Amino acid sequence: MNVRMCFSDDTWPDGFSVKKGDMVVYQPYAMGRMKFIWGDDAEEFRPERWLDENGLFQDESPYKFIAFSAGPRICIGKDHAYMQMKIFSVVLLSSYIFKLTDETKVVTYKTMVTLPIDGGLHVHASPRLGPTRP
In which element (H, E) is residue 123 found? Predict the structure, then answer.
């Protein structure tokens, strides 16, 4: 959960009013799974939801996808984290095929700061055959 303190009275876009000194608490984990925000498939792993009709990456509002915070408190490492994610994805996915060790196992998380997968996520990685592209 993230907590913020209101420094002045304000009215949010939906009409909700907050007063100076109010604490606002939000939970990014829950927000990332809300059907109200993401649609009926909110809990499904669909990487293509981040692509436009031409297959190009489209940014969501940092206030909708709040993993890196937003506004004046946005994470200064966001762009670096995105670059690392893209580099590792290209290298790993172009070199290996990944399959879950147990495709019937339900994935659950430990309630901690970083929400690790309870018991880990065990996969088999096998080298891709033929030429790969970096």
Answer: strand 123-127
DSSP character for 24? Answer: E
The SS3 of residue 109 is strand
Q: How far apart are CA 50 and CA 68, in angstroms?
A: 16
Nearest to 66 by CA among 128, 16, 24, 20: 24
Which residue type does 94 have?
Answer: S
Please list, in sequence order, all residues whose beta carbon lies within 8 angstroms of the beta carbon of residue 25, skipping any fewer than 6 positions away. 1, 2, 3, 4
Every domain of the chain and the residues it spans = 19-75
Residue 132 pLDDT greater than 70, yes or no: no
Using the predicted structure, report yes or no on whether residue 28 has a pLDDT greater than 90.
Answer: no
Q: Which residues line the annotated binding site for heme?
A: 75
What is the residue type of 60? Answer: E
The annotation places the binding site at 75
State whether residue 51 is helix, strand or coil.
Answer: strand
